Amino acid sequence: MTLWNETKSIPISRQMVWLAYKKVKANKGSSGVDSISMESFDAKRAKHLYKLWNRMASGSYFPPPVKEVEIPKNDGKIRKLGIPTITDRVAQTVVKEHVEPRLEAIFSPHSYGYRPKKNAHQALTSVRENCWKYDWVIDLDIKGFFDNISHEKLMKAVYKHVPENWICMYIQRWLQMPVQTRAGEIIAKQGKGTPQGGVISPLLANLFLHYAFDKWLEQNASTVKYVRYADDAIIHCKSKAHAERVLTRLQSRMNACELELHPEKTKLVYCRDFKRQGNYKTVKFDFLGYSFQPRTAKSKQTGQLFLGYDCAISISSRKRLADKLEELDIVNMSFKSIVGIAQKLNPYIRGWINYYGKFRGYELSKVFYLLRCRLVRWARKRYKRYRHSLNKAYQWLSRVRKQYPYLFYHWQLGYSN
After folding, report:
1. Burial class for 384, CB neighbours closer than 10 Å (0-12, 13-18, 19+)
2. 124 by DSSP, 3-state: which?
3. Which residues have C-beta within 8 Å of that of residue 411, sequence separation ≥ 6?
């Protein structure tokens, strides 16, 4: 494959486009406004990729609008994503792969979201350890962050680290991409916002918050500890007075960056445990699907119980898993045996345990109890002999578990339900 074409004005090789395509294909994802799926794209892959390379390398590539997709949030509201076309995801990946290493070199070690070799479990581990050392938390929520990123301020940060004009040109074009709503209406950007769902958006968001939040906090409140995952941040302070001062200054900082802290979701939290017995109302916060709050713990040395401060799957996350079980409609599955159900459900169960089982995983037993109830209901519908006897159906499931302890993924790990 030709790696270079001297006649092109921009140093984008076919190899760069090919490697970007392979990453996009591995991530799967749905079609954009052109309705071209990955299967359709692959059928004419050479044509699509050559056309993209030719246009990108000559500076004549202009991204199409992003497709607006609505997904429900934990609080019942709607989050709007902007889904680029497959071709545009490849284009964004080309630029992201080119510029990400130099931005990674400047990013803070306390920022964990959407970064190579960083993940949510690392962020949660840091927050846990900080909560044991610091009495107070600022649970920070930036109102509509992705919709309100200032293009002008973001591009200042881009120019600081990206001297190549062609990269800056394409980043500006992606920032200015309009949105096509579900009704087909085209909505233009007004100098702010980057769509959630884009390949390069998380990198640009991290760059913006590196200067708007991370670096500012390190320079102006050096005694605090903080953990940031994309636009979710937890700040740890020694005292309530200190937390109040930091929060007041942060509100001013966010306003200067044309952002706003959510007045209801941003809060001060007291990390109450057996040592910290202050009488404060708010002692709980949620972060990355986990709830941090006072919890009973057992001493490794003495085996005695005490009140600690730790995290486990949040109520809203548990409800979301319960809703997924409802959506899967296990009771009406048409498999001839429970083996088919296990094969269908195990990828979900494995994912839930891998993420929510990291800390106090036994809290997932409440979700698996709901699964057990649905399996019993399926058996009563499937087998006549259990139709009129709930106890016999439960006994049947217990026998299945004893005979085939590796059938369901959570059975392999010894979960109680």
Report:
1. exposed
2. helix
3. 401, 404, 405
Handedness of CA 27, 30, 35, 39 (dihedral sign): positive
What sign does the dihedral 234-191-211-66 (CA atoms) show?
positive
**Reading across the β-sheet that carries 179-180, which strands appear in turn?**
78-83, 66-72, 179-180, 186-187
- Alpha-carbon distance of 325 to 29, in angstroms, equals 23
Q: What are 388's two structure tokens?
A: 């009129």
Please indicate, yes or no, whether the overall pTM of this predicted structure exceeds 0.85: yes
Reported as a single tens digit per residue, the pLDDT across 172-216 is 999 999 999 888 889 888 889 888 889 999 999 999 999 999 999
Over residues 280-293, the pLDDT tens digits come to: 999 999 999 999 99
The amino acid that residue 123 corresponds to is: A
Q: Cβ neighbours of residue 72 under 8 Å, at least 6 residues apart? A: 78, 79
Q: Two tokens at 414?
A: 């010894």
Q: How far is CA 147 from CA 175, 324, 379, 383, in A?
A: 11, 28, 48, 53
Q: What is the maximum alpha-carbon separation in the chain? A: 78
Query: Distance between CA 205 and CA 145 in Å, rounded?
Result: 9
Identify residue 81 by its one-letter amino acid code. Answer: L
Q: What angle do CA 314, 251, 228 make, to 5 degrees?
A: 40
* Contact by Cβ (8 Å): 358, 403: no
